[in-house]
Structures are given as C-alpha cells and as structure tokens.
Amino acid sequence: MATLRRFGFGLLCLVMAAIAVLPVPDFWITQLNYIGIYAMVALGLVLLTGVAGLTSFGQAAFVGVGAYTAAYLAVTLGVSPWLTLLVGIALSVVVALVLGAITLRMSGHYLPLATIAWGLTIYYTISNMEFLGKYDGLLGVPPITVAGFSLGTGRGLYVLIWALALASALAVTHLLDSRPGRAIRSLKTGTTMAEAMGISTLRYKIIAFVLAAVLASISGWLFAHFQRSVNPTPFGVHKGIEYLFMAVLGGVGHVWGAFIGAGVVKLVEDQLQVLLPKLIGTSGNFEIIVFGLVLIAVLKYAPDGLWTFVTKRLPAPRRVRDWQGAAPLPTRDKPQRGDLLLEVDQVRKQFGGLVAVNDVSFAIRAGDIVGLIGPNGAGKSTTFNLITGVLSMTRGAVRFRGQPVGGLSSRQIAERGMSRTFQHVKMIPEMTVLENVALGGYLRTRSGPLRAMLRLDRAEERCLFAEAEAQLARIGMAEQMHELAGNLALGPQRLMEIARALCTDPALLLLDEPAAGLRHKEKQALADVLRQLKREGLSILLVEHDMDFVMGLTDRIVVMEFGTRLIEGTPEEVQASPIVRAAYLGTEH
Amino acid sequence: MDFSIAAILALDGLTNGAVYALLALATVLVFAVTRVIFIPQGEFVAFGALTLAMLQQGKVPGTVWFLLVMALGCSVADVVDGLRHHHGPARIARRLLGTLAYPLAISAFTLWAAPQNFSLGVQALLTLALVTPFGNLLYRLAYESLADASVLVLLIVSVGVHFALTGLGLFFFGAEGFRNPSFWDARFTLGPLALSGQTVIIFGASLALIVALWLFFERSLWGKALRATAVNRLGARLMGISSDGAGRLTFTLAAFIGALSGLLIGPTTTVFYDSGFLIGLKGFVAAVFAGLASYPQALLGALAVGLLESFGSFWASAYKEVIVFGSILPMLLWRSLRDPHSEEH
C-alpha cells in the first residue's frame, strides 16, 4: 500500500496517457476533458478554501477572464493561443491582487462576499459588451496548434488538458510541502502564531488567492478552445458555487479531492439533467436542488469529503529522512553574557477605562532567566503581548538590544530575534511535529512559491529540516518528529512550541506559562530543558503561575499585581517579601 | 437630466432602497445573532410575492406543499433525534406536535381559503403566515447542528441552502413570473412628483417595521435575549438564553421580513422563482456597507444602493447591476482602510 502512495501519481499519469491511445469512446474523452478543466478550478479552491481557510464564489468569473481573453484575442485579432494564455493569466492576477488587497486585510468572510460581487459584475459586464458579443458570446475560436498540428477538441486537446491538470496537481502538492506551503497551511489557525514566526499572513493569503485565480484562468483558456466558442452563462455566480461544491464534495483539504469532486459532479449532473425533468414532468435545472442538499449534508456529515474514504485505507506517508549532513542555517550574532538585552520602560496599556498594565518597567540581561509572576489578572500576559508586539501599547517604550521595538508588529519583532510560545498552544494539528517546528525556521530560509512548485527548494528544505530535528533533539523530542502535532499530549505540545521558537534562532526566548497543565514529571523535564538552554547562553523571559517551578529556575523575578510592578529581585528576595505574600495570600486585618 | 427627472429617479431609488433596507436589516440581524451570512434572504422575497400572486388567482400556492415538505423534514429529524436519545414515545410525539401543528393548521386553512377569493389584505396576511414559518424550519434543517462551525462553513452552507431553495422554488412555483396588483391605487401629486399609493405603502411599511424592530430590541425580553446572544453566545447561554432558540427566532424574523419585502416589491416588478437572489444581494451590499454590524449604517447603505440603481439604470441601463454590485468594491476598500484589524472568528 505504501508503494501505491509513492507511485500512485506516476500510475495515474500512465493511465491517463493510455486512455488517449486506447479505443475509448469519444463520449468519454469529452467527459474527461470537462472533468480535467473543472478539476483545475476546484484545485485552486482546495488551496484557497481547504488549505488557507478562505473562499471565493467568483472562480467561474476567473475562468471567464481566461476564456474570453482567449476567444476575443484569437477571433478578432488572430493572436496565437499561447500568447492569449499568458494575457489571460496576467489579467486574472491583476484582478486577484486588487480584490485580495481590498478584502484580505479584514475578516475572512469579506473575500467571499467581494467575490460574489465580482462574479455578478463580470457576468453582467461581458453580457452587455458589444465587442464581446453580448449574451451570444463569441463564435469560431480556433483550435490550439502545436508545431503546426491542430489539437482539435477531442483526443489531442485531451492530452493537453490532462497534462496541464496533472502538472497543476503536482505543483500544488509540491507547494504544500514547502516553506511557503507551510505558511499557507498556517493561515487557517489564525494569524497570531504565524506572524510571531515572521510570516506575513496577508502576503500568503494573497498568494493563495492569486494561485487559485491563475488555475481558473488556465482552465478558462482550455475551455474556450474546447468549446470553440464562449458565452456568458458558464461564468456566472452559480457556476462559481458549483466549483466550490466540487471541491467540498471531493474533499476540500486534499489535492485529489478536486479531481474526485469534479468527476462525480460532472457525471452525476449529466444524469440528473436527464432524469429529474423526466421525473418531475417539466424542464428546468432541478439538479441544483440535489447539489444544494448534498452540499449541506457533506458539510454536516463528511466535512472531509469523498477523498478521505480513499486516504483512510492508505497508510500515512512518512517523510524520508534525507537531511543528514545538510549545511547549517545562517545564525544571528548573539549578545554577550551580561549585556543589557531587553529594557521595558514605563509600559502602559489601557483598554478603554481599564488600565491593564500600569507603567511597568524591568530589564533583562543576556544569559538570565527572568520570571514574570503574579496572581490571575495581574497583567502578565498583557505585558508579554506588549513586548512581543501582539498588542500595541498606549504609552512607554521597549528597547531590544538597544533598538526601540515599541510600535513594531510582532513579525518585525520576530525578525529582530525575539521568539515566543503561547499560553494556549498554537500549532497546526494536521502537520507533523517536525513540520510545525520547521515553521520557526521561516525567517532563516528564502524559497518562494515558484521555486517550491518546481521543487528547486530541496537543498534549503534539507537544511531546514536538519535544523528542526536538531532543535527537537535539544529538548528531547526527536523521537516524535513524525507524529501529527494534533495527536500529542499537552506536555509534548508545549515542548514542541519551545522547539519551534528555538528554530528561529532567538536572542531572547519568551515563554507564556509553559508549565501550565503539565504533570509533575513533565514540569521537571521542562525545567531541565530550560536550565540546559540557559547553560547554552540563551536568555529567557518566563510568565508563570507555578511558584516552585519559577523559584528553582530563575535568576530574577518581577512580581506584578493589578497591572503594576510590585517588586523585582532575586528569588530569595521575592520569597522573603511580605508584600508578595500579601498579594498572593491576602493580609490580616 | 433636469430636476423633475432627477426627482423621479430619486423617489424611485428611495422606494426600492426602503425594501433593500428591510433585507439589509434582516441580514445584519441574522449575522449578528448566528454568524450565518444568509445569502438566501432574497428567496423569502420571491416566495412572498409568488404566494400572493397565486392566492390572487384563487389557486393553492405551492408554498403550502413546500412548507409541508420542510415540516416533514423537521419531523423526521425530530424522530431520529428522539430515538437516538432514547426518549419515550410520548416525548417524541409532543415534539412532533410542536413541529407540525402550525404548518399543518396554516396549510389546511390555506387549502380552504385559497379558492374563496378573499380581499387583498387578507391574502397578504395569509402570505405572511405561510412564509414566516420557513425561517424556523430552515434554521433547524440546515444550520442548527452546525451552530458552532466557522463563519466560512456556515457561508458555504448558505450557498447550498440558496441552491436548494431556488430549485425547490422552481418546482413549487413554476417558471412563470408574476406581477402583483397594487395594494392602494391612489395617486398623489407633490410638485413634479407623482406619488403612487404603493410607494406610500412601501415607505410606511418599512418605517413601521424599523420602529417595530427597534421596540422589539429595546423593550422586549426576547429582543434583549437576541442582542445578548449577538454580543456573546456563550455568555448568553450561561444566562439561560438558548442559542438554538435565539437562532430560530432570528430566522423566523428574517423570513417574516423577507416575505413582507416580497409583498411590498411584488407590485413594482415581475417576480420569478429566482428573482430573490439579486434582490436579496442588493440588501446584502447594504449590509456589507454596514460591516454586517450596524443597523443605521445598513439603512443608509440600502437607500444609497436604491439611488445608485435608479440613477444607474437611467444613465446606463444595461449596466445597472454592474454599477450596483461593482460599488461593493470601493465600499470594502473604505472599510478595510477604516477598520483593518477585525480578527477572525
């Protein structure tokens, strides 16, 4: 079975190639042409909806852009189809960039809303443009020719369609297993963690949307040459919803789900279009009733779609460990032990009338472990979020290695060498531990989407995985690197977050309640790890509840209560302080 | 364009805008309480207009059978749910009665009343009584078990619901379009403007509904419960407000508002089974203008959409839809510049 997984793609290519030369009836060639064309659009939606957690109802409109560009340029100006392909892609990229730039800064549901509007707009625009033939469209699109040989609309075009469809599937598969791919996969779980790892989430949202638009545009180009004519009907919003239906039905999180979905929808649609009007007695597109009901049922009862029924039977693929001896990733120059590393100067945060952090100051020297403690609601986590740029401060200054970092985004702060973990573990549960940790190495690597799709990023990936494994080994988790992160218990998940933070090569590590929810043994293991990191020269800021844990570990402690700094000192000084006792246990009256 | 044409266009735009405003309010309400982006809001508009049209002809509207099918679907869900939780037959029967009683009663009444050719007013009330229960049934069938899903999943469910409702609309109402008679044939002249009775009714009904909604949310316990759910679902649940109950009530309101809009818009345009989509989406553009959050902004947005549409159809009639839906983009740009950091749900 494992071999099936490894060689499945090659096998599929062979089968699809064989169909072209075997005496398969023309009817099925036509059906397969439709399926390949639809699958490319659905593939874009897999990337956008299943992986990035965004969606678009306007993919049919991008198909329309590709199709009309091909048809108009070929029919009226006689431009070569290969040129019209590029023009169509360029046009859809421009549209996707504009729509993305406008909507993707806001909550995720503004993109689908904008794409509905865009889908309606483009439909009514092409339906009323004189030069695009209004509702009648454009006729007489010439077939594609390769080296003087016309591909026609049958077997010749079939080869081109499936070559492009399978190549797209391969490219998307490669992309998902790469630096930009992991960044795209991180989008669905919210932006805070990804930004803290230095990933520009806006950039990757736009990239996912643009790629989906490009796939749709290529599909439209094929569609125009397959139909030999274009009219506005197949590019309306309802077709856009149908593409989404294909992706959801097949399995919106899986590349091959797009193909299964496109196949099932196309074949079933043909049957329903004949059967339902006969059953009902009048003509009409009653198949949309079935589509609507099935769509709701799939989301309710099988949100992973049909493809999971296949993957359930296949063993999970295991990453081949091919990174022995890979070159180390670049490192940043570290501060000398004892240098002033972080200065928090009169930092204040107000939420309306509530002062959550009231002019708090403290400092961290390189090589120290500093604990930030206090009762619940003391403002520890808020202070932490102010330092790391997750929240913006109302007043005050934070200097990191002598440079002011107040007002910078968490991404820019990550670039300067601060790395953090989260009070509630933030990870991508469906990626392995190793891949999650590799997210930390995002800023130390360079490969972009194009390199990833062409598999030119392998050398760098090896370096990155070597580093990720080394960091996992550093905290004693190398054994579990191939497990899915979501399957880990809470303790190992917290350790994994630390490994991910270490993978950024930080000058200062910030841990937000790393011991919360851990068992006694796990706490000891964590304390050992942190001591070892300190020996290796790392500086750590620790927000924590557990007194024993903090006292045995830290060099200095800052105590907060009601948003203000109560006292700062060595663990012994803090332990002896009557005000700290009063804060924790109350005073006698 | 002279002043009189501008005035006529403005009146026309504001009239349609008043209807879009109702739909926009319903959209904002549904999103705030349930986080459902309710694309099929417009379907209720078509259902309302077509139901009245059929009653006008003395026929039993397809709505009756449609309603019974939905109620049947819900009762099947009731029975399955009851069996799964090992409830006794008496308890299951009580739930079935709760689900079926109203739809059966109103259907039976309609079967009797349809051929009687009652006055327009009575038929309008009957239409509201027939279409309003769709909201509750629809929420229970499509959304209730997904109440904790992400906004994105709920949105995709919404387009599924839209597909199913449009197709079922074709089945139950047929492909023919209808234009309803005016509720009030009076004509008034105000300077250059000729104000029809229907226009007066549209403004009056919209205003009355907005005031009623305001009173409902400000003064009634149910209204306050819905507001509490909108602010914080979990918190409201801890205070004993059922979020399922809130969802059902919200969808019932949405269906009522949709049906009423259908009655109002029916005499001004020919309505087909699938006309609701575009009408509803225009209310939607207004709701997006309001960030799916603010009722007064939704109202203003809807009037703007109405004006844009009427002036757009004067200057470039073929492109009026392009103008209306295209306007959502600058609106979104404005919103993203004003309020870029709304975090995901």
Note down, in words, how this protein is organized.
- With 589 residues, chain A is an alpha/beta fold.
- Chain A contains 23 helices and 14 strands.
- In chain A, strands 10-11-12-7-13-14 form a 6-stranded mixed sheet, with helices on both faces. A 4-stranded antiparallel sheet of chain A has the order 6-5-8-9, with helices on one face. A two-stranded antiparallel sheet of chain A has the order 1-4.
- In chain A, strand 8 (395-400) and strand 9 (403-404) form a beta hairpin.
- In chain A, helix 2 (26-51) packs across helix 11.
- Chain A is elongated, with a radius of gyration of 28 Å.
- The mean pLDDT of chain A is 90.
- Helix content of chain B is 74%, strand content 2%.
- The longest helix of chain B has 32 residues, at 3-34.
- At the A-B interface, helix 4, helix 5, helix 10 and helix 12 of A face helix 7, helix 12, helix 14 and helix 15 of B.
Q: What is the gist of this entry?
A:
With 589 residues, chain A is of the alpha/beta class. Helices cover 54% and strands 12% of the residues of chain A. Chain A folds into three domains: 29-311, ABC transporter involved in vitamin B12 uptake, BtuC (Orthogonal Bundle), CATH 1.10.3470; 338-417 and 506-589, 3-Layer(aba) Sandwich (Rossmann fold), CATH 3.40.50; 426-505, no CATH class.
Notable features of this structure?
heterodimer, A: 589 residues, alpha/beta, ABC transporter involved in vitamin B12 uptake, BtuC, Rossmann fold, six-stranded mixed sheet, four-stranded antiparallel sheet, B: 345 residues, two-stranded antiparallel ribbon, 74% helix, globular
CATH level 1 class label of the largest domain in chain A: Mainly Alpha
User: Averaged pLDDT of chain A, please?
Assistant: 90
Q: Order of strands across the biggest sheet of chain B? A: 1-2
Individual helix count of chain B: 15
Uncertain stretches of chain A: none
CATH second-level architecture of the largest domain in chain A = Orthogonal Bundle
For the largest beta sheet of chain A, what order do the strands appear in spatially? 10-11-12-7-13-14
The figure for the number of domains of chain A is: 3
- Tell me the number of strands of chain A: 14
Q: Over all CA atoms, what is the radius of gyration of chain A?
A: 28 Å
Q: What is the makeup of the main sheet of chain B? A: 2 strands, antiparallel
**Poorly predicted tracts of residues of chain B:** none
Shape, per Cα inertia axes of chain B? globular
* β-sheet strand percentage of chain B: under 5%
Helix content of chain A: 40-55%
Oligomer: heterodimer
